[in-house]
Amino acid sequence: MVLTPRADIAGRKAANISLEEQFDDTSGLLENQLDRLMVRFKNSHPDFDAANMNARVIVDHEMRHEKNGEQATTESPE
User: Is the pTM for the entire model greater than 0.70?
Assistant: First the structure.
């Protein structure tokens, strides 16, 4: 099935909203349940606790890489 550009944009927008809701749900799960379980390891196993927190850092991969000597940027071209 071939979608019109407008329908395609609407579909992507709906998918992004769904993803945002799923990320919010997952963050709530981490903060309300997993973090409570990790409290017991904070003093007894600080390396494990630090590794857990580092693993949860979200890395932004929107960085554009250099092409033909251009400066790398995260901004969209104007």
Answer: no
Q: Do 48 and 34 meet the contact criterion of CB atoms below 8 Å apart? A: no
**In the block, residue with structure tokens 């409570």:** 36
Phi (first) and psi of residue 18, to 5 degrees: -60, -40
| Dihedral, CA of residue 57, residue 63, residue 65 and residue 69, to nearest 10 | -130
Domain total for the chain?
Answer: 1
Domain that holds residue 32: 15-55
Q: Would 27 be classed as within a structural domain?
A: yes
Angle (CA) 53-64-71 rounded to 5° is: 120
Percent of the chain exceeding pLDDT 70 equals 76
In a domain, 70, yes or no: no
Give 45's pLDDT tier (boundaries 50, 70, 90). Answer: very high
Residue 77 placed within a domain: no
